[in-house]
Amino acid sequence: MAYYYPEPSHTFSEYLLIPGYTSENCIPDRVSLRTPLVKYRKGMEEPAISLNVPLTSAVMQSVSNDTLAIALAKEGGISFIYGSQSIENQAAMVAKVKGYKAGFVTSASNLTPEATLADVLDMKKKNGFSTVAITEDGTATGKLLGIVTSRDYRVSRMDPSDKVRDFMTPREKLITAPKETTLKQANDIIWEHKLNSLPIVDDDDHLMYFVFRKDYASHKENPLELLDSKKRYLVGAGINTRDYATRIPALLEAGADVLVIDSSEGYTCWQKNTIQWVRDHYGDTVKIGAGNVVDKDGFRFLAEAGADFVKVGIGGGSICITRETKGIGRGQATALIEVAAARDQYFRETGIYVPICSDGGIVHDYHMTLALAMGADFLMLGRYFARFDESPTNKVMVNGAYMKEYWGEGSNRARNWQRYDLGGSTKLSFEEGVDSYVTYAGPLHDNVEASLYKVKSTMCNVGVTNIPDLQRDAKLTLVSSVSIVEGGAHDVTLRSTSTVK
Among residues 435, 452, 469, which one ends one of the domains? Predict the structure, then answer.
């Protein structure tokens, strides 16, 4: 007969942490969130890749593009560029992240001299940037002919049809710098000449980048940024179990630092075959994660197959309806606790520590701390990151509030049938995800900073200052439904914060 688990599976909201002793040294500013991303011999070597914060962005069309990858790397985490697109487009996104130079910005607003003031205003309205590069061909890398800023025109005194060539600051009046210029040198030039921006040009006077005055302070505000040995941002990429033989080489050529098999269920021969192909062709030089699994058997299978990390979670994402449509999955907290125990057992047996990633089920910031306490080395988040300016989706007004579009990889909109591959020729025949909106939340930096401060503060309440100690010393308790109600505001009448006129 079928096996029945004696206990129900639980979600994060059914647990609370018990406070521990907090010493005078246990303050948020002293908490380290550094954590391993890939497997290593714990106690004998350092991981090949570690994160400075335990956050990764989900392998989703509506979440992880090059823009979000750069923003998250600045905070110390890593994005996995979505693979449900052409190999060429995905590799191009990876290359953009690796080619990005902190402080050196590729121009996002570009026109030719034949454009009009109306074009300038439309572009400013569209992307919010006040600096427009005027190039010979209207591209970000064309021959530089001038720039336009808000100081070059007066809307009230000019006609919208006025040509850019008549009011732009021409090339001969611009202060520029050559391609060899370092960020420090660029900032020195900006301050010396009281500039708001400095164009960087190549030997043929083609525009390469802008360095902006405002970005100098921003660069100083990211001490945890995640960089490789060449001072480039780290970036990951999602792959599937179908076209990996052609996709992986292209992604590695573009500079991908780590790969992950993007699949709704990872306890399969297809994932083992994919990992084996990587090992046969690249040995251990290429890092590849696998998943998703929800029990010790799934973890052991992928660890023995050679996965560098294992993702945990099936059906817990806010846009995922796999449990509803297929009846498979497990409560995220229960799955994570069992897999963490299997990871520790595998380490005791082999000396190899295989990090685990909690993927799905994070609704509130405190769920992050619970997931880490339950054994997760890092978290993968979709809905959380989809809300921010840097995510690739549109910001729209819905019922008087700004929202961001957010859809699952199993939805008809994404049509990522490879993620749900069961080895046959049939493509996506029913949905396992929905198309939705999430409340717009603003810039990634501000939100991540606030969320992680909560994590650090809670860790101090527990009495620890790093993730390994949290996993070792945390005490967790299940709470009843009545206790959950008790944990929120109750038996009071809340005051409205709105002003009555």
Answer: 452
